[in-house]
């Protein structure tokens, strides 16, 4: 079976893990109990790696939606004989409401078929394949369901119809008439304990309804965005909530691994981890789109994970596991074919060991936003923040891998220098709250030195723009961070020229690339190509809005947001030739970019108040 398009999937989430369901009613990806756990279903990456499908027999048309205010997917199937609905949800604890959403989830997948008109026949096929498809567990049919034995975990299933055992799988057939409901449930447990009893078929509808109310209560407490783009912002905020590992506050970049940046390509990475570079933009997005509580949780996670690694003899790590793990060593899974034969499939991410100097600015900017909006910094965070600033002061002149995690030779990336300026600028602003650790005069002097150096060596007369690295002529979309972080106003003559150069020369069919890939001499040290970057296109929209061109910004925003799938989800990249979504999905950074661009446009049009703590103001 050919893999579904990336855009065919919807995400289910419970505050700990995620699952992807496609338009045919197939769960093709599910990692439990954490986002970065080995997949139980991985047909997304190989036809033989496990799935759970509830699909109409014969030809059908499918439409779907998120139930309003939730990440519960409702798919409506229309066949020649009738219409039926399938509701899919990852359950939350019964009665959980508001900010507590996602705490201590039961690791239970709930699925309900409801007849709407006529009657519809369904095939049900459940093929568990733990550990990314390596394990073919033993199955035992039980009264009303099935249990697995063997391998690194166990699952128990309840079914409203008898199941038939196949080769390491179970199947069933059913026909649903108007007014009938059939509820299925699957619960996970580690191997050392027996799985709890799954929800009975009679209670599945009730438990899905309760999960719906839990999501709606969370959104009701977090509905603070009142600009014209409110609906898009609220959806993206729910996506960010769904990508949050609630026990620690970590936010993963995406719930998937190895969805490629080009079909058949090798740029296939594991994004199920939390990056520091996302921190300040995530906080800005969460503040616009939800509430400061999520921001507090995320900052707490980042500072506790990074604490102790910002000293004079060590680099601040750029990313962590959702539990704060540091070692994310990368390996390949050669038994998996990859999405549309895009090999290799990777787990882990070797970028954890790279030196990326931009992270000091991103984390200090996050702390700056945190203290302005959420109160005073704790003493240990005061010491930690001062250490970050001192390290940025000492190391900003070093070459590094850059924020795009290039695997070629280290360079003097412009974005890294700008973010070191951000580190010292925010440290100066934080100084009154850093006690005896503060060194505002030294920080301010080096901040100004960085600024002058960037203006001199980051500008290319030949290109007429700020470029990717010192003394280079290559454009890089990361230069758009200069106005977004307040390094230069978007109306500055050279900054304005850079914005226009990127819009003119770093786009493909109007969508923004990270940088140009040049045949056999890719400066990033990687083979193959990639699509246009959703985040970078939203950066350009935000920069155009700040530069006083909100109409152009709105047009670009609408075009990029229009590539979202029917559920409103965005991947990392867009193929400009086909419009197909590419890369890991859904991508937190893309939804962060949407929220922040929407806010910039709505502010430029006077439809949304500016926040005093915004770094660009």
From TrEMBL:
Classification via PANTHER family: TREHALASE
EC class name: hydrolase
SUPFAM superfamilies: Six-hairpin glycosidases
Family listed: Belongs to the glycosyl hydrolase 15 family.
Protein name, per record: Trehalase
Cross-referenced Pfam families: Glyco_hydro_15, TREH_N
Entry's EC annotation: 3.2.1.28
Reactions it catalyzes: alpha,alpha-trehalose + H2O = alpha-D-glucose + beta-D-glucose
Functional pathway: Glycan degradation; trehalose degradation; D-glucose from alpha,alpha-trehalose: step 1/1
Keywords, ordered alphabetically: Carbohydrate metabolism, Glycosidase, Hydrolase
Cofactor(s) named in the record: phosphate
Record-annotated Trehalase-like N-terminal domain positions: 4-160
InterPro entries recorded: 6-hairpin_glycosidase_sf (IPR008928), 6hp_glycosidase-like_sf (IPR012341), GH15-like (IPR011613), Trehalase-like_N (IPR045582)
């Amino acid at each position: 079976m050919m893999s579904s398009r990336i855009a065919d999937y919807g995400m289910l989430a419970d505050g700990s893990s995620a699952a992807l369901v496609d338009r045919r009613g197939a769960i093709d990806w599910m990692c439990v109990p954490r986002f970065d756990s080995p997949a139980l279903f991985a047909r997304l990456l190989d036809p033989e790696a496990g799935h759970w499908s509830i699909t109409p027999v014969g030809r059908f048309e499918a439409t779907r939606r998120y139930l309003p205010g939730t990440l519960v997917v409702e798919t409506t199937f229309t066949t020649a004989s009738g219409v039926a609905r399938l509701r899919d949800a990852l359950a939350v604890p019964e009665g959980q409401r508001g900010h507590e959403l996602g705490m201590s989830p039961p690791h239970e997948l709930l699925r309900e078929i409801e007849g709407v008109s006529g009657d519809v026949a369904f095939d049900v096929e459940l093929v568990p394949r733990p550990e990314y498809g390596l394990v073919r567990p033993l199955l035992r049919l039980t009264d009303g369901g099935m249990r697995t034995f063997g391998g690194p975990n166990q699952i128990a299933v309840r079914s409203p119809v008898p199941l038939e055992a196949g080769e390491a799988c179970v199947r069933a057939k059913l026909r649903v008439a108007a007014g009938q409901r059939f509820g299925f449930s699957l619960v996970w447990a580690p191997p050392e304990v027996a799985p709890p009893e799954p929800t009975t078929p009679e209670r599945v509808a009730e438990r899905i309804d309760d999960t719906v109310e839990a999501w709606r209560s969370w959104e009701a407490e977090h509905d603070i965005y009142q600009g014209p783009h409110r609906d898009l912002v609220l959806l993206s905020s729910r996506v960010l909530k769904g990508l949050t590992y609630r026990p620690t506050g970590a936010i993963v970049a995406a719930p998937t691994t190895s969805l490629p940046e080009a079909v058949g390509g090798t740029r296939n990475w594991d994004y199920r981890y939390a990056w520091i570079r996302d921190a300040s933009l995530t906080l800005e997005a969460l503040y616009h789109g939800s509430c400061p509580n999520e921001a507090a949780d995320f900052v707490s996670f980042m500072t506790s994970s990074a604490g102790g690694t910002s000293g004079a003899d060590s680099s601040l790590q750029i990313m962590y596991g959702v539990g704060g793990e540091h070692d994310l060593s990368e390996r390949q899974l050669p038994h998996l074919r990859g999405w549309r034969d895009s090999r290799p499939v990777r787990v882990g991410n070797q970028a954890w060991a790279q030196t990326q100097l931009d992270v000091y600015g991103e984390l200090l900017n996050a702390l700056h936003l945190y203290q302005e909006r959420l109160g005073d910094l704790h003493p240990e965070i005061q010491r930690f923040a001062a250490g970050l600033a001192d390290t940025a002061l000492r190391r900003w002149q070093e070459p590094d891998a850059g924020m795009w995690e290039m695997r070629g030779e280290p360079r003097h990336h412009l974005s890294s220098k700008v973010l070191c300026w951000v580190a010292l600028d925010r440290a100066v602003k934080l100084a009154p709250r850093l006690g005896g650790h503060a060194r505002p005069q030294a920080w301010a002097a080096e901040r100004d030195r960085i600024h002058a150096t960037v203006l001199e060596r980051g500008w290319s007369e030949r290109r007429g723009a700020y470029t990717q690295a010192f003394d280079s002529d290559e454009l890089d979309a990361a230069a758009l961070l200069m106005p977004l972080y307040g390094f230069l106003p978007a109306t500055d003559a050279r900054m304005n020229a850079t914005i226009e150069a990127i819009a003119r020369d770093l786009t493909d069919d109007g969508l923004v690339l990270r940088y140009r890939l040049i045949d056999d001499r890719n400066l990033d040290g990687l083979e193959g190509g990639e699509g246009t970057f959703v985040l970078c296109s939203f950066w350009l929209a935000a920069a155009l809005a700040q530069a006083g061109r909100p109409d152009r910004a709105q047009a670009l925003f609408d075009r990029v947001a229009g590539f979202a799938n029917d559920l409103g989800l965005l991947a990392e990249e867009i193929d400009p030739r086909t419009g197909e979504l590419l890369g890991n999905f859904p991508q937190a950074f893309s939804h962060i970019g949407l929220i922040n661009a929407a806010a910039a446009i709505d502010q430029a049009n006077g439809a949304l108040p500016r926040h005093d703590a915004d770094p660009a103001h």
